[in-house]
Amino acid sequence: MLNRNYFSCCLLLAMFLLMLTSRAFGQGKTPIDFSANSMRFAREIEEDARRLINNVHFRHEGTDMYCDSAYIFTRQNRLSAFRNIFIQVNDTVSIFGDRLEYDGNTRIAELTGNVLLIDPQMRLTTTHLVYDLDRNTANYVGGGRIVDADNTLTSRWGFYFVNEKQFFFKDDVMLVNPKYVMESDTLRYNTLTEVAYFFGPTTIVSDENTIFCRNGWYDTRRDISRFSKDAFLQGKEQSITGDSLFYDRNTGYGRADRNVMIRDTVQNILITGHFAEHWEREGLSVVTKEALLTVIAEGDSLFMHADTLRALYLEDSEEQFVFAYHRAKFFRNDLQGISDSIVYNFSDSTIYLYHNPIIWSDVHQLTARRMEIQTSDKEILAAHLFDAAFIISQEEDIGFNQVKGRNITGHFIDNELRRIDVFGNGETIYFLKEDDNSLVGINKALSSDIVIYVEDRQVVGIRFIRDVDANLYPVDELPEEERLLRNFEWLDFKRPKSKADIFIRD
Q: Where are the beta strands (DSSP E) in 214-348?
């Protein structure tokens, strides 16, 4: 008996709660108000359906809806409207369409046909739009088109937060601006600020360049942007990549951070580092933080490092230079060098070195106050040494061959030093040998100008020009202290032996 009474009480309580729930649901939303020129019941469709024709007007919780004809379902608190749909959402948002399904309980309006949403910032056109009047959001599936002051944006799917003026787009997103075209996988766009944020593979194409990234933003009003994740900017002849890129299209200024790479396809050069700035109109790029220049050549590339690398392209003369300064070093298998400042001229493949540079070629060390090294893709052509010029090579373990003068020009054939021209205050110390490599003696000479001929690293002839004072000494008769010319320095310990050595600070 107790169990039966207990069960009856539970059943009554459940029925009471169900009644309360049903009443609460039914009273949750206000009914839709309506008017029209003509109204009649349409019980053939539903028991409570009414047919409304001409100048149909619905009003629900502050929103006005107009159409040519409609059905209103009073018990369900919903309507179906046809032709010339117009919804005045608020003072700023209006929606037009061919057909409307509206649920007064959820306040969700579904429009189809030629749908148009207008607010002060933009116009949205689509064939299927769902608008949530409670949350003030709109979304479309199957394609839409947004037009604002400067941009036209299309996508397969879109979601619009009307109050925040924020759009989210997905699939086949394209933004067309008079200056460029942007294509993306996923994009967020603020119609008030006109800033686009992208969260997938994105490409921006303009007459000046092409930009790619997987994350970033673009201020379409101010034409400034930041890109990350596989970001690169490709110009007509140069490209720049980095973990993060900033670009101002108005000024042509770009900046890159971390893992930066600038590639020039015309000159076949590569500049890397961890921070770079680029001025597009001036043709100038500056790279710092482990900056490295690679001059790509078939079989033997040149690698140059300095605290700062500046690449400059002069459009009028079509000349291109790279300036390396502060502790500059370079390495090529046949040529290595150190200098405070180095300039590489790509028009004639000449390397200019300033502030007491040192050059090594094969067994020879070349020093001077400044130098010019003429090269080609595969070989050294000539080395011009200016002011306090000095060339040294080690003669096995018995001493050093030395040439000194005011200015010196070294001529190379197949990357071997074959002739040395000394101009002014010439001095030499050379170990002379027979054909069988036996030592003859030490030649020590002074002359205003000197021409020295070299084959297979050995001196085979010397021609002294004006004011000659030359002596050949047996090896045992020339004291050690007289076997070195004044200001002699053997600096082989500074010589880069590999590409990695150019990053070692002295």
A: 215-219, 224-234, 238-248, 253-264, 269-279, 284-295, 302-314, 319-332, 335-345
